[in-house]
Structures are given as structure tokens and as C-alpha cells.
Design goal:
alpha+beta, 10 strands
Length: 399
């Protein structure tokens, strides 16, 4: 049986070599489809793991209070300046830090830049470092008396103004001079990443230089380890609803945000894999077309094989194995290309500061190869039966 299997592969390999460039084009269709699927699945899995790790780094005691009951409502609803104080009155809450976020123009060395400014109550900025969102690397943090001091993100100078900005240097915001008193550590957590290229200042000062009225964009809440998360969420919701007179906010824990992020990533991956699957389907059609052409070209050869005693199953096996070999070769090359593409995406993401490592599992490797080979063999079934149905007498006279 082993000899028969080896002989089938030997014959199939010889036939593929004989068709040269046509075989290459047929295999290329499978390569593209498999490469796209492998790259997308491995990057998608890496993204899922990255999201999970980012959430875990914040701990399980962190909540986010956001304006509105959903995406559309959040554009019209707003949080109140004293909502953090209301939240801190709730049993089980450790602290609550409101974040005011505004886009502003700054001037440095006679050049203007558009920047993101994050306003924080100075007495609460140290709380953010507890959950790894804003830790000072150089200088000091803001204090209540800092009416003209600012802290800058770790990448602010390199990403925004493209030159050095050190401690005690000044920048102009809204016509007022501010001195850099601190530089933050680089944040690797997705929730804190916005601090890396931003300016952090006293929230009252941000309100004073803003042309429009601003309110907290979100409130970061830390729950005491001894408190029950769901109960704390319910109590916070009740207190805020009493203060607002309506429920125009939403409270999300990391598990909910992780689930939403996972759903979004999964949906995007599914759509992209679907597109890649269409490419693979086209590759399968290419295999079928190539095999049908092969049947026509080898009609006389098939007739001779039948005349000397080759059985119908033997004829079918030769063509199916040949088609499967096309799929397997395409799968191997597609797997290599897909892994290389996913690795390149990871490298580019890392260089841009995004923690993303493509994940290639043994299941993905085996699945990709099995799938590509199956596509080839399925595409080869019809041509194989066409070949097996050839009348040997007519085939011998075929020119």
C-alpha cells in the first residue's frame, strides 16, 4: 500500500512539473488565500491576547464612568464636575479621578502645535499612578498650587514638537506661559497610552484657557479590594442617577470593555477572513480549471492506462492526489508567507508603540495545511471523475 501511495505522489509530482508555469499560477491562488487567512487569524489572536493583557495590567478593581448610555448618547450627555465626589461617597469606592480632555493650540519656540491636553485635579493625579496610568519619571507631579505648571507625556517631545523639551522649559497655551515641572513614564497600557503624547495640567487651568465649556470625559474609579464589584457598580449608579435626575451615564468594568473589544476584533477578523476565503475559493476554481485542462490534454494517456488495466479508482486517485498536492504545496507556501506577513505587522505595530505579537498556534498550522489540501482535493474530484469516464477506445484515437 505504501508503494502505491508513493507511486501516486510520484506521478502527480511529475505531471505538475510537466505543466510548469500553469501549475505555478494555480498554486499561487491557493498561496494568496492561505497566506491571508493565516496572517489575519494570527494577528487577530495576538490582538485579543494583547487586549486581555492590557486589561489585566489595570487590575480587577477599576471602573470607568462615561457620559451617555451608548455611543450616540455620549455625544450629547455629559458628566458633572462633582461626580467624582459623589462617587467617592459610595461605600466600597477607594477613589475616583475625573479626566478632562481637550484639543488646544500651544506655542513653543515661535511654532504652533495642535495637542491633546488632559486636565486632572492636582490632588488626585497621584491616584492614577496607583493603577499605572500616569507615573512621573522626571521632576515632580502637579500640586494644588500649580496654576502655571504642566506635566508632559513621555513621547510628547518626540511625537509632537519633534525636539527636546526638558524640565523648567516653558510653553505657551491660550496666551499664558506654563513651565514643565514633570515628565511621565511611558505608559504601555492602552487606557493610559493617551498620556504619552499629551500635556497634563490642573483641570481648573484647562477650563480657564478653553474657549468652550468642558466637563469630565470619563471618571476612573478604583474599588477597594474588599468590595464586591457588582454591588459597588449598582451603588455608584444609584447615587449618580439621584444626583443627575436621570441615567445619562454608563459604568463599565474591565470585563465588559474586554468583551466589547473582543467582539469588535472578532467581527473585523471574521470579515477579513471571509474576504480571504473568497480568494481561496477562487484558488480552488483555478485548481479545478487546471485539472480539467489536464484531463483534456491527457485523454490519450488515460486511454492507454485503462487499456493496460488501470482501474477507475486508480485513475480517480491519480487526479485527486495531483489536485491535493497542488493544494498542499500552496498551503505550505501560503503558511510561510502568512507567518512572515503577521510577523511584519507585529514589528510595525511594536515600532509604533502598540503591543501586538502575532500568535501562530499548532492548530492554525495543521488547520491551514489540511484546509488547503482539502480544497485542492475537492476541486479535483470532478476532473478526476471526468478522467475516469473516458472511453479507452475513443481515448486511444484522441489527438
Amino acid at each position: 500500500m505504501g508503494f502505491v501511495d508513493f507511486e501516486l505522489f510520484r506521478v502527480a509530482s511529475r505531471n505538475l512539473k510537466g505543466r510548469g508555469f500553469r501549475s505555478f499560477l494555480t498554486i499561487l491562488g491557493v498561496v494568496i488565500g492561505i497566506a491571508a487567512i493565516v496572517a489575519l487569524i494570527s494577528v487577530g489572536e495576538g490582538l485579543n491576547q494583547s487586549v486581555s493583557q492590557q486589561f489585566q495590567s489595570l487590575g480587577t478593581e477599576t471602573l470607568f464612568v462615561l457620559p451617555g448610555g451608548g455611543f450616540i448618547e455620549s455625544a450629547f450627555a455629559k458628566l458633572e464636575d462633582d461626580d467624582d465626589e459623589t462617587i467617592e461617597e459610595v461605600r466600597g469606592v477607594d477613589f475616583a479621578v475625573p479626566l478632562y480632555i481637550s484639543g488646544q493650540q500651544i506655542e513653543f519656540k515661535d511654532t504652533r502645535y495642535s495637542v491633546t491636553i488632559i486636565g486632572v485635579k492636582p490632588e488626585k493625579i497621584d491616584k492614577l499612578s496607583i493603577i499605572g496610568m500616569a507615573s512621573v519619571a522626571e521632576g515632580r507631579n502637579l500640586t494644588a498650587s500649580d496654576t502655571s505648571g504642566v506635566v508632559i507625556g513621555s513621547n510628547f517631545a518626540s511625537n509632537i514638537i519633534k525636539e527636546d523639551l526638558s524640565l523648567r522649559q516653558s510653553i505657551e497655551i491660550g496666551g499664558k506661559k506654563f513651565k514643565v515641572v514633570g515628565i511621565l513614564d511611558e505608559a504601555t497600557n492602552n487606557f493610559a497610552r493617551m498620556f504619552n503624547s499629551a500635556i497634563i495640567m490642573n483641570s481648573d487651568e484647562l477650563k480657564s484657557i478653553s474657549d468652550t465649556e468642558i466637563s469630565p470625559m470619563r471618571i476612573v474609579v478604583n474599588i477597594l479590594p474588599s468590595a464586591e464589584m457588582e454591588e459597588a457598580k449598582e451603588r455608584i449608579s444609584e447615587h449618580l442617577e439621584d444626583e443627575h435626575g436621570k441615567k445619562d451615564f454608563q459604568i463599565m468594568d474591565l470585563q465588559q470593555i474586554s468583551a466589547i473589544a473582543g467582539d469588535v476584533v472578532g467581527m473585523i477578523s471574521l470579515v477579513l477572513v471571509g474576504i480571504a476565503a473568497i480568494s481561496l475559493l477562487v484558488g480552488g476554481i483555478g485548481i479545478m480549471n487546471t485539472m480539467l485542462m489536464s484531463v483534456m490534454e491527457r485523454t490519450k494517456e488515460v486511454g492507454i492506462m485503462k487499456a493496460i488495466g488501470a482501474t477507475t479508482p486508480k485513475i480517480i486517485s491519480i487526479f485527486v492526489v495531483e489536485a491535493g498536492l497542488i493544494g498542499l504545496i500552496g498551503g505550505i507556501l501560503g503558511l510561510i508567507l502568512g507567518i512572515a506577513t503577521a510577523s511584519l505587522i507585529s514589528i510595525l505595530a511594536e515600532s509604533a508603540g502598540l503591543p501586538l505579537t502575532a500568535v501562530v498556534t499548532p492548530e492554525l498550522i495543521v488547520g491551514a495545511l489540511a484546509f488547503s489540501m482539502a480544497i485542492g482535493m475537492i476541486a479535483g474530484v470532478y476532473p478526476a471523475f471526468r478522467a475516469a469516464s473516458v472511453d479507452p477506445v475513443e481515448a486511444l484515437h484522441y489527438e
